[in-house]
Design a protein that fits this description.
Elements lengths: L1 H18 L8 E5 L5 E2 L4 E6 L9 E5 L12 E3 L4 E5 L7 E10 L5 E10 L2
Parallel strand pairs: 2-8
Antiparallel strand pairs: 1-3, 3-6, 4-7, 5-6, 7-8
């Protein structure tokens, strides 16, 4: 009986190791500016994820206090393709901003979300 228990344990561990990556998604771990932060006007938005991203199918939209879209520069990936860096073209005015993001991880899973920050006067 102990041998059967041991074999079943090994099989369960092997299954978890092999199946684990299939259920992986790129989750947002942090951002700069951070969620709900009050900051000086940033020159870029950095989103840090748990997995590498596909730049072609990843991006953000930033909406300002007047509900207008903020003009952004070309996105790029950094830190092993886990950080999406998006430059902000013009200085941000004081007020509340919302970042809506969508990403495709290199394993083909899509995730999206949003967060807000405030630019101090």
């Amino acid at each position: 009986m102990p041998r059967l228990t041991r074999l079943l344990s090994y099989a369960a561990v092997a299954s978890a190791v092999l199946v684990g990556p299939a259920f992986a998604h790129a989750h947002l771990t942090s951002s700069v500016p951070a969620d709900n932060a009050s900051v000086a006007a940033p020159s870029e938005i950095d989103l840090i994820f748990t997995e590498g991203l596909n730049l072609k199918f990843s991006g953000i939209k930033v909406t300002g206090p007047d509900k207008q879209d903020v003009e952004l520069g070309d996105s790029k990936l950094m830190d092993g393709d886990k950080t999406l860096m998006v430059p902000i073209s013009d200085p941000l005015k004081p007020g509340a901003y919302t970042v809506d993001w969508h990403v495709l991880s290199t394993d083909g899973h899509k995730t999206s979300g949003s967060y807000s920050f405030t630019v101090k006067p």
